[in-house]
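Check my protein:
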Amino acid sequence: MTSADLVLLDGNIITMNPKMPSAQAIAVKNGKIAYVGSNQKTKHYIDEKTHIIYLGGKTVLPGFIDTHAHVTDYGRLLTWLNLEKVSSIKEIQTKLTEYIKQVGTNKWVLGRALDSTGLLEGHLPSYHDLDVVSPDNPVVIYCKSGQVCVVNSKALVAANIYQQNDSGIEKNSTGEITGVLRDQATNFVWNLIPEPTLQELYDATELALKQFVQTGITNVHWIVLSEAEISVIQKLVENNSMLLRVYLIVSSQLLDLALQKLKHLENDYFKFGGAVIFADGYLSSRTAALFEPYSDSLSVKGSLLCQQNEMVLLADKIQQAGLQLVIHAVGDKAIQEAVNTIQQLNRNPNVPRPRIEQAAVLNSQLIQCIKKLEISVSIQPCVVASEFLFWSAEKRLGEKRMCWLFPVKKMLDCGILVSAGSDCPMEPLNPLFGVEAAVKRGDTQKVSVYEALQMYTVFAAQAALEFVDKGSIEQGKLADLIVLSNNPVSETIGEVSSVFVCFAVIGGTVFCSKN
């Protein structure tokens, strides 16, 4: 019997394989799973060179697959001033002072994850509060929830806020601008923030990849929307610096460039998987294309970003390139256009089934069409939660359509392949937060913990036509695994988000978490 490079013993292994749902131990050889089963039989794979890890009953899952993330954008966010745990405006001022010493004067300072509910004062700082410690740097601090930021006077002047007329520009009782910007008004300053250099993007992306692994993500579907990211990815692959497995999905506008620069670089850690067509926008901005007007704005239905004939031509081009067709479609009208396009497609049997990204506003007929055409759907559970919590989805869509907003349970029950991702950095990266969001929905569309885990593992692998190697813990598959502090499926666990990743294994290599 061949000796193993790595053996995990005494674990609670949830395999996601219905033929063997659970096991105690795993043996790994040459980056693949050599054996899954009992402690006793796994010990036969051990010799003096085997690295043995005793799990003490900890839970093992297949590595998480995040099917929708913006990796470089997340890396940029990690370089910003982190204000997640500050408890007062004074503490914000202290952290700002220290950060400015590092970056120097006159440079833009970006902060993130500020939560006004956690501040001693009970309200966001004003531009006066920021000016005290940052008179020479434009400062923009983004809040944890919703589309909200706080800026100092330097940023207010740069963005010409005093001459703007927008309801999102907050004013106090005397009519004075406070420095708090909401919704579309945040774009006034966002559009002024200087673009980072290519080296800065590369360094930020490396930071992001490390964080992905630490949260248990062993495979990411990386959504690329800029030329700069293509150069970053090219350099990462050429330097053998991909820490986890990447399934690349580029905007259809970048398809030719990406094919030229990246297709020939594919390896075990990098695959050029698909291209995405944007059929419409988002519910939050009322740019998702609907058949009927928005309930809170009866003159608005949203609009299609891509007409049917153009969409068909792009779809054919993507399939002919040997790539998965991905269509971002949020509103029911856009989803119908996506379905019509796929119906006309001369499908390539060697690429994964076409996929609709988000598919937020559905109906019974659309669900049946998606099922019949064998289209997969990629959702982001934390985005779903945000639609309910921050974007007033019920007010925006009305009671009737709300019943069909992200009907995940209905799709799963009728056999549609549904995978899950984070939409990071717009939403939290941690897949366990996504699992909890899917389980805690306050309507009939909540799913079980096991179903949510399937969307991040086995279903995600099937959606990319990668189930031969990924998605479950089986002999012969890649040794991409995660070890958790507790069993998220257990009914006694309470909050799923309280579970943390102890370590990840990618291709047989152990990556320790910060926890």
The mean pLDDT is 94. Residues 85 and 363 are 41 Å apart (CA to CA). The longest helix spans residues 198-214.
